[in-house]
Amino acid sequence: MAKESLSPNECRDMLLAAADKIIEAEPILTDADRALGDGDHGIGMQRGMTAVKGKLEGQDFDSIDKPFTTMGMAMMSSMGGASGAVFGTLFRAGGKALAGAESFGAAQLADFLSAASEGVQTRGGAKPGDKTMVDALVPAAEKAEEMKGGSLPDAMAAVASAAEAGKDASKDMIATMGRAKTLGERSIGHPDAGAVSVSIIFATMSDFVAS
Ligand code: ADP
Ligand code: MG
User: Fold this and answer.
1) pLDDT digits (tens, 9 = 90+) for 147-164
2) Does the residue 81 lie in any domain?
3) For 15-60, how does the pLDDT look when each residue is reduced to its tens digit (9 = 90+)?
4) For the chain, which end, N or C, has fewer CB atoms within 10 Å of the first or last residue's CB respectively?
């Protein structure tokens, strides 16, 4: 049965599913970062998500924001580097916007993504078009805003598609941030590794609320 809204512990389980999928996707993320960066994105995300599992598994949550902020802090403290700060901020800033919410529905998804996308851009300085995970995150946040009056499964599915389309669009962009920027035009043809991670995370969240 599709889920119309999630309790704090259902949010925890959704995030644990995303953590497992990212750990499983390590070879894909490694290859993506090898094409453009230094090849450590898969291992870094795997380390971060293992730390996330350690903090979330078996823990009872009584507010919606806590599973998300706990995930963000675990990533920040375990991953280091650009992606630790950026992905940690996604979940921490997004989660903070959910403080006081009774449950996680389409409106909360929009609030989460709006704060996450703003937080990541403030923290990392990347803008849409710079060929970073922002190119998957910003379209996802815009889609969530559009869908906030509807059902959670519909909103989550649309958000996952928007993130995937953003990841695909990043193939044609020239990197201007991070390690890939030294490649210039040679960065064309490959999707950004962090955008691949974002699209995997939202696809897994969508599968979770649909089932
Ligand atoms: P590092 O760049 O330290 O090797 P990773 O390889 O784990 O870290 O992560 C690289 C990913 O991080 C990139 O693919 C990009 O999506 C994201 N990233 C790097 N710098 C930024 C930034 N300033 N803003 C947003 N995302 C960024
Ligand atoms: Mg790297």
Assistant:
1) 999 999 999 999 999 999
2) yes
3) 999 999 999 999 999 999 999 988 999 999 999 999 999 999 999 9
4) N
- Note whether residue 55 is domain-resident: yes
Look up residue 12 and give its two tokens.
């925890």
Ligand 2 ion: nearby residues, β-carbon < 5 Å: 33, 37-38, 40-41
State the closest ligand 1 atom to the C-alpha of 32, by its place in the atom list counted from 1: 14
Tokens representing residue 133 in the block:
């995970």
In a domain, 2, yes or no: no
Task: Domain of residue 146: give its range.
Answer: 8-210
For the CA of 40, the closest atom of ligand 1 is 6
**Number of compact structural domains in the chain:** 1
Instruction: Ligand 1 pocket test: pick from 41, 190, 196, 201 the residue with the most ligand atoms within 8 Å of its Cβ.
Output: 41
CATH code for the domain of 197: 1.25.40.340
Residue 1 lies in a domain: no
